[in-house]
Amino acid sequence: MKKLSIIFTMFALSYAVHQEPLFDKNEDIDHIVGGKKAKLGSFQFLAVLLRDGESFCGGSLVTSNCVLTAAHCVDYIKPKDYSSIKLILNTSTINPIDSKAIERGVKNIVHHKNYNSGTSVNDIALITLDSPVEDIKPIPLPRIGSTLSYAGMWGTVIGFGRTQKTLADDESSGNGSNTLMESSLQIITNSQCSAMYAESKDAKISASMLCAYAAGTDTCQGDSGGPLIVDGIQIGIVSWGYGCADPKYAGVYTRLTFFYSWIRSNLV
Ligand SMILES: *[C@@H]1O[C@H](CO)[C@@H](O)[C@H](O)[C@H]1NC(C)=O
Ligand SMILES: *[C@@H]1O[C@H](CO)[C@@H](O)[C@H](O)[C@H]1NC(C)=O
């Protein structure tokens, strides 16, 4: 029971952190929801994870059989519950989903065995789909051996913004965005990021994490488990952060160049 409530708290936290509406530098777009609508059909590889019909995380198609996501999205899901999980790809809205959307079930889930929910290190997992998705181009991952830090580069993060209430939330608090949103962020160095989180003794930026930030604007990382993309390559997985709309803190991502061999050995 205790464990369950910890999991629910983590869930509520990850929603609070990652599922706020996206904001955009262009204030004229929309003051309330903010963010920029993603171009229709531009992120077909993005997967929405649904549990009993409600979205709880994002992911990305990395081979025709496998979706990459965050460990914190799936580490509590037991094989007997796989049937309650659905993945939706190729959609730009979730309620209702596009008519061209592709739905798959779960065959298997593996998360990094050294994932630590306290420190968020190794926040990476792979979901094997119940049947392959042949007609969508998977998102490429960093080249084997690449040690680029990406600091200073601009990336894109995509997600559906707030699509359901947090578990702690009031049911009547409104519907939020159903639409796929994208936002631009700049990757910062890990030491800049550590400085942002210096006051928090619980938050430690490890070498296997990467931080991205949009200065002077309220941004949010999109759904947990979703991709951070630079030049058409996924370099990070939305992992954690403080205060989604708080410009004091960068968003923290799983740094994929650290996990290339884990990914290779767990892909099917
Ligand atoms: C994905 O959706 C687009 C419409 O947004 C559609 O044109 C395309 O055929 C779909 N792709 C697949 C593989 O179903
Ligand atoms: C919220 O969603 C419900 C059910 O889908 C719908 O009936 C209602 O009109 C929506 N409210 C707003 C403000 O969009």
UniProtKB/TrEMBL annotation:
GO terms for biological process: proteolysis. It comes from the Eukaryota. The keyword Ribonucleoprotein does not apply. Residues 1-19 form the signal peptide. Residues 32-268 form the Peptidase S1 domain. Pfam families: Trypsin. InterPro entries: Peptidase_S1 (IPR050430), Peptidase_S1_PA (IPR009003), Peptidase_S1_PA_chymotrypsin (IPR043504), Peptidase_S1A (IPR001314), Trypsin_dom (IPR001254), TRYPSIN_HIS (IPR018114), TRYPSIN_SER (IPR033116). Belongs to the peptidase S1 family. This is Peptidase S1 domain-containing protein. It comes from Daphnia galeata.
